[in-house]
Amino acid sequence: xxxxxxxxxxxxxxxxxxxxxxxxxxxxxxxxxxxxxxxxxxxxxxxxxxxxxxxxxxxxxxxxxxxxxxxxxxxxxxxxxxxxxxxxxxxxxxxxxxxxxxxxxxxxxxxxxxxxxxxxxxxxxxxxxxxx
Amino acid sequence: xxxxxxxxxxxxxxxxxxxxxxxxxxxxxxxxxxxxxxxxxxxxxxxxxxxxxxxxxxxxxxxxxxxxxxxxxxxxxxxxxxxxxxxxxxxxxxxxxxxxxxxxxxxxxxxxx
Lengths: 132, 113
Fold this sequence. Notes:
Number of strands of chain A: 0
Radius of gyration of chain B: 16 Å
Oligomer: heterodimer
Largest sheet of chain B: none
Helix content of chain B: over 70%
Distance between the termini of chain B: 10 Å
Radius of gyration of chain A: 17 Å
Structural class of chain A: mainly alpha
Strand content of chain B: under 5%
Shape of chain A: globular
Strand content of chain A: under 5%
Distance between the termini of chain A: 25 Å
Largest interface: A-B, 51 and 49 residues
Structural class of chain B: mainly alpha
């Protein structure tokens, strides 16, 4: 892997961690009454992170193949388990771990099974990138 | 928890709809860069997206952090189905297998919730 690709791969995973962490804020918002000041503040943070994600994602897919980006995005399921364990002290059952792993495999099949993003046509990849 | 999980799944469906609308909007020709973003379809899509994030926040009131992202993986399924209906995108055998695998994963994880 080229040095430049490694850099964008790391950036991709930083973005994935950030978008995944937005679920912690969403969870925190749930503690407050709907439309209360704190609820609005936390929901605003979630929307701001989504906005950041939309911009950052566009940059990442300019430098990494779309299939790599989408397949790696599936690790949010693993981060969900980590946050659940660390933040809300949820019970991480074997079924949850296996389920998350199966979902990741499924996502890989979905993105690699999509002809438009599988590398069959560079022109189509550009088209998908532009439309994403 | 089922009620809140359904709210979250509805949000994922709405987000998938917004992606399809954005894709439809991207296929059109616009007279200017501003018009590419400031048109009813794109504004509508982001309005949907906003609604989807609201569903996610409401869902997380009860849905565990460890299950949320797994439920959100249903987005891949909705995008594939909606893409086939509205964009005439093909679902290859490998992709269809992947969608089935995702469903199996969600069921397995839900059993452990």
